[in-house]
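pinging the channel bc i need a second pair of eyes. not urgent but kinda urgent?? the chain im working w is below, pasted from the shared doc
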Amino acid sequence: MTTFTPSNIAALIIAASFAAGLNVYATVLTLGLLAHAHWVVLPPGIEILGDWWVIGVSGAMFALEFVADKIPVFDMIWNALHTFIRVPVAALIAYQASAQLSPEMKLIAALAGGAIALLSHGSKTAVRAAVTASPEPLSNIALSTGEDVIAVGLTWLTTQHPWVAAAIATTLILCAIFAARWIVRILRRAWTRSPGAATNTSGR
């Protein structure tokens, strides 16, 4: 049974926050099931995740998101609305998970958790915006399924090898930043070309 100590709570915050940015319900559900099965002892502040009512609600929402997140265009609306859910919940989990630390460290943990979730969520939304433009739905479904697998897998790994999971999450954060910048650059070029094309057409 894995037990989180003050020395590896930072790893939990990094990895779980990244996973929550992708799919907060999958993250909470995985932590809750593992805690309820006594495969992991969660930090005192978040042991409530192992209660059946939390598991039930997060499981139902995960099932709903599993479907909603795979519908082109609607998934963009869903993800936009979840900016106000994934980031605050990640910050709250980070804050509660660091209950054993000083008030200053708890605040830093909450800010870090929220920032990591925002980066993860933002990159997911940017990549999804690029993929949604494709007329076929298979790429959207494959991408969404991959995000679910990463969220569940990374959360599970956090409970077994916290610092390995944190290292993977950090690598994914860096990749997400570069991917988001690349997509933004492409969208800017497309936006710049559109007015030019309209000007040339009107000039004729």
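so The helical segments are 9-36, 52-68, 74-81, 83-97, 103-132, 138-160, 162-203. and The radius of gyration is 19 Å. — does that match what u expected or am i reading it wrong
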